[in-house]
Amino acid sequence: MPDHRPAAAAGPVVAAGAPVVAVLRFEVPEAAWSDFAAAGERVVAALAAQRGFRTARLGRSVDEPGAWLLVTEWAGPGAWRRALSAFDVRCELTPTLVWAQDAPGAFEVLYERDADGPAYSHGSALAPDAAVIAPGAGVRTGARAGGDDGVWSLDAR
């Protein structure tokens, strides 16, 4: 017998590669609200010109108007990182960072659903050892390889 359930009820679509949502929080003094809003529009325009850009929203809290938020979505972590290194993005974003709050800001999307569309499940792009080792780093072991030339032998656990 054929399955007549709506596609969304059949379970999430498994998609390759997780998109990234980047969240920047700001605490902006009242005297700077107007200038910050204009600067935020320029930041969004610069980000929107980058490859892998999906969407952006600049908003502020309805309860605490000094609390602002910039939320962007990217095709993946590489697109987000490349966008941040673009010259025009740095020129527009850097002046706003004086009000940025120090907090984790990039999140991989593992599950998503829009109001009218199917659900999507994304696999994680994080390396299995992402929480314990940084890119390009290793665990120093024993003595230096090759003597005193400053090169360490790395154990890529």
How would you characterize the overall build of this protein?
The chain has two domains: 18-122, Alpha-Beta Plaits; 127-157, no CATH class. Helix 1 packs antiparallel against helix 3. It has 157 residues and is of the alpha+beta class. It has three helices and nine strands, in the order E-E-H-E-E-H-H-E-E-E-E-E. It is globular, with a radius of gyration of 21 Å.
Structural descriptors:
single chain, 157 residues, alpha+beta, Alpha-Beta Plaits, 4-stranded antiparallel beta sheet, 3-stranded mixed beta sheet, 3 helices, disordered C terminus
CATH class of the largest domain: Alpha Beta
User: Which structural class do the helices and strands define?
Assistant: alpha+beta
Shape: globular
Percent helix, as a range, is: 10-25%
In round numbers, the mean pLDDT is 82
Q: Termini, distance in Å? A: 51 Å
Quick one: how many beta strands?
9
How is the biggest beta sheet arranged? 4 strands, antiparallel
Beta strand %: 25-35%
User: What count of helical segments does DSSP give?
Assistant: 3
Element-by-element helix/strand order: EEHEEHHEEEEE
Structurally, the number of domains stands at 2
Which residues form runs of ≥5 with pLDDT under 50? 1-8, 144-157
Radius of gyration: 21 Å
